[in-house]
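Researcher: Here's the sequence for the chain we discussed earlier.
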Amino acid sequence: MKKILFSIIAMMAVITVQAQSIHASWHSLQPVVETEADGSFTAQSFTYTFNPDGTYSLVNELTIASEPAQTMEQEVATNIKVKGTYTYDGDKLTLKPNMDTYKAELISISQNGRVTNSSSVKTSVNTKLNSRDFKAKFNGTKTYTVRVGEASMTMKDGGQEFNYMRFATIKD
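Model: Thanks. This is the structure I predict for it:
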């Protein structure tokens, strides 16, 4: 009887310490907001999908509001998409984006509180979104310290911490 009880307890311990799978789609819990001295700001929400084959995709919902933010002189909403490969070892997650997959999709542009369909404004915004300087924000290998739970994931990059919620699990 003691052997059976010990075996059951040992099995439960193994199940308890088993790491949660990163193979899922994860959405940021709150936007990352960066405010500039001139009153403009950038707000971003991220969705990562990590596949069992070592590939990932990132969708960055990005809103940029120009100065002054209170009057929303210009507001641009976009989706930035990038795919790449990842390695996950222990608590280290390394992302290697493939910039050939970079795609910036313009969702809407507002000027002074009104949606605009101006082709010159759209061209100007698309040029910025596809510029080398802007794309550099998404380029380069990045390593995060991660903590993966059943319903949440935390990614730390230096002093910044990003919290994500699991909203779709991918079977191995």
